[in-house]
Amino acid sequence: MRKYTTIVIGILVLFGLYLTSLYSFLLFHSLVELFSIVVACSIFMIAWNSRRLMDNNYLLFIGIAYLFIGGLDLMHTLGYPGMSVFQGYGTTLSTQLWIATRYLESLSLLIAFFFLGRRMRPNLVFLSYTAIVSLVLVSIFYWNVFPLTFVEGVGLTPFKKISEYIISLILLGSVVLLLRNRREFDRGVLRLLIAAIITTIGAELFFAFYINAYGFSNLVGHFLKLISFFLIYKAIIETGLTKPYNLLFRNLKQNEEQLEQANVRLQEMDRLKSVFLASTSHELRTPLNSIIGFTGIILQGMSGEVNEEQRKQLTMVKNSASHLLSLINDVLDISKIESGRVELSPEEFSLDDLVREVVEPLSPTASKKGLELMTEVPAGITLFNDKRRVKQVLMNLVSNAVKFTNQGSVKITARVPGEDNLEVRVIDTGVGIKKEDMDKLFQPFQQIDVSPTKKSEGTGLGLHLSKKLADLLSGDISAKSEYGRGSEFTFTMPLRYEEEQRNEASAGG
Amino acid sequence: MKRVLVVEDNETNLYLIRFILEKSGYEVIEAREGAVGVELAIKEKPDLVIMDIQLPDIDGLEATKRIRASEADGDIPIIALTSFAMAGDRERALAAGCTGYIEKPINPETFIAEIEKCL
Question: Across-strand partners of A385?
Fold first, then answer.
């Protein structure tokens, strides 16, 4: 819709200019040339002022060139027959200036490609143009050595006509180069530039034919020039101001795209890392399983008598291997959770059963230490969640409590405070945690020193992993403690696990 | 003497399992590949199959399905050897038709008891 509006307005403007030309060709000519001069100067202003930011030297070069093209076009306008600014030069003056300007324009459009992706010194280019244009002006105005282009009563000289053809060829060459380097340009800008240059070629051909400065082909030629500068305006000024990233900072935009691609690659590598970790830890577990298995066989006495010292040492081998195995399992679990590759398999199960399964394997250790291991779990609580993971969390909390309690009791209580939530507390009368250590509690590899002499066994990942698991199960773990008196860990989770709850929970946290 | 078919590609594990079983008075048949395991399970009609999940050719789950699909099956107890860390192994093993599962690492103290539960 906007396109058509532009075209309609364009046609109206052209028609208005045509009417103007009927009234005064000089006025028409001045208006058309002024428009192209304004566009040329604007291109310069945009290019020159963004030269330190711009990553396309082709455009910077063209920008500088157009200032001088605009300047020569101004001289051409002022020297047009009837303007009577420069006295005593005749019709040839404005056509000489015209031809000089068109040579400058077409050659600039060609040379600009040399600076595509090359370093360029704007000041040097500016000085060169100043020198060239000065020479041209001096040769026309002072030395009178510039070839004649128009002879009164005869018309255009062969130099002028041939020049228009040469200029057309040079312009054609720049179109070819534009197409060859099309990857360096935004598609819209490229199309507009090509259209502008082709229109200019059309204008040149009309100017090759004209008989007098006020004739028909001259009128059409100027119309085409007007259109061509309008297209250049669209290509460079409008795009440069409204979509600078398509024109001036195109490389920046391309870099951004490369960055995006790099990001995609990184994510893929992160995924591969997780896969690698998973398979590596499988490879690590296999030999460890053998070590644990064979140590077990020998300890069982299946391969013959084992003396007391051997038993003691083999037990150490077995414990160390088991410790290593749980480390590997914990690291694998954490990496899986972090890469979001844990699949939960929720099922119905009774809390009663679960607590029993947690307490049973720990009661020998507890009774050996003389601890009372108590449970206060109301009967009939049914949960829907990943039983294995819930058990893993609870097992970690209870075994920690047993590990860090030397006398007294470890108590597990459960209640359903709301309708949908379960709260399990593990309360011990153990060594407790210092206030300053509470922050480190859920950090990985932050085993809190219980006593200066004895460092407790364990992976140092247990609580960190439990916290992550609880989060995964839509639950949470919190702790309070009084140093020297005991600790209390609270594990809360929904009675029924639902996928959406988890998403909300992770979005909130 | 009861015969147990052990399908396991890892030589060390195979030796370990064979050792425990033979010490406890079982006769052991070995298969190092899933397909061979299926063939032996059908041909030799063992009293029990111990099936590792990760095998070089067809995995333990597929092998179990094939044994279950064969006519000579006769409800042989099949015990899967699963890994604690591989979540979903147990569910998949039971779904494929395994009678039970034993988690690695193998604990010689409980291994035989677990097997006897399935016999």
Answer: A347
**Angstrom distance (rounded) from CA A92 to CA A96:** 6
Q: Which residue segment(s) compose the domain that A299 sits in?
A: 262-338
- Please, what are the domains in chain B? 3-118 (3.40.50.2300)
Q: Count of CB contacts below 8 A, A vs B?
A: 62
Task: Quick: pLDDT tens for A102-129.
Answer: 999 999 999 998 888 788 889 999 999 9
Question: Nearest Cα to B6, choosing from B32, B26, B25, B24?
Answer: B32
Evaluated on CA atoms A246, A251, A257, A259, the torsion sign reads negative
How is residue A114 annotated by DSSP? G
Task: Tell which of A270, A304, A338 closes a domain.
Answer: A338
B19 vs A297, A299, A332: nearest CB: A297
Same domain, A118 and A140: yes
| Model confidence, pTM | 0.54
Neighbours of B86 (CB within 10 A): 17
* A239-278 pLDDT, tens digit each: 777 777 666 666 777 788 888 999 999 888 877 887 787 7
Q: How far is CA A50 from CA A55, A67, A111, A241, in A?
A: 9, 15, 20, 11
A-contacting residues of B 49-88, CB under 8 Å? 54, 83-88
A478 forms beta bridges with A490
- Spatial neighbors of A268 by CB under 8 A, at least 6 apart, are none
Nearest-neighbour CA in chain B from A337: distance (Å): 12
Q: Looking at the domain assignment, is residue A214 inside a domain?
A: yes
Suggest the residue from B17, B18, B19, B103 to mutate for an interface test with chain A (most A CBs closer than 10 A): B19
